[in-house]
Amino acid sequence: MKKLKLNNDTLMPVIGLGTFRSKDEDAYNAVLTALKAGYRHIDTAAVYGNEEAVGRAIKDSKVKRSELFVTTKVWNTEQGYRKTLKQFNESLQKLGLDYVDLYLVHWFRDFDHLTRTWNAFETLYDMGKVKAVGVSNFNVHHLQFLLDNAKIKPMVNQVETHIHLQNQFLQDFCTKNSIQLEAYAPLMSHHIEDLLNDETMKEIAKKHKKTIAQVAIRWLVQRDIVVIPKSITPKRIKENIDVFDFELDDEDMTRIKGLNKGRKFFPEFDNVPF
């Protein structure tokens, strides 16, 4: 598994399993299947309500903790210094872990909450309870605020990224400031049929004798973007990590770049209704 180095030298596997909307036994089975298939990166969040199932699967997998990269996130209602520390400890207990590899601010709420929440993140980082800290659903101006004001700068920014929302400008900004971009909804989430029916993607997949989903994931990997495809189907979980035996050529990359539509399926970062 290819790994990318964060700005504090932590190594992050380039592909992980997303668990958004995976509940109870579905989450447990998906994580266990993924770990048996060679995944070592699992992404969850407090608001997903599946941290206990994820933790149980990690324990039952018998994979050494040192080999794993586990991410969770603080939810909006729990932002603030004391609330963040409280939710983190609850997440850690549910996961059954002594630390997490990456802790993220799930969404931008406002700059006051961000300041206090990030102070809690810095405390957790200094205590060794988190190996890396970052954010999710942040745009350039949110990131710039942290770069200007925080003692520890964010190491990861996890955002919706796929063939119709390619985020090149945001990635360029992140790269310039040593922030790793991470893609959720890489297969276009509930609009996956639009991905699977795209003629360009069909042609490229046929050329490489791979699935369209594998091409979409490989395209992100070749852009040095961490990707967390979500699935609860064993066959697809295994397929989604099987992208290291082929390479998209310059023509493929250019053709996929031409599919960008700036099409966003999840809320705008400054106008979340929660």
From TrEMBL:
Residues 15-260 form the NADP-dependent oxidoreductase domain. GO terms for molecular function: oxidoreductase activity, acting on the CH-OH group of donors, NAD or NADP as acceptor. It comes from the Bacteria. The record marks 73 as: Lowers pKa of active site Tyr. It holds the Pfam family Aldo_ket_red. The active site is at residue 48. Gene3D superfamilies: NADP-dependent oxidoreductase domain (3.20.20.100). InterPro entries: AKR, Aldo/ket_reductase_CS, NAD(P)_OxRdtase_dom_sf, NADP_OxRdtase_dom. Keywords: NADP, Oxidoreductase. Substrate binds at residue 106. Belongs to the aldo/keto reductase family. This is Aldo/keto reductase.
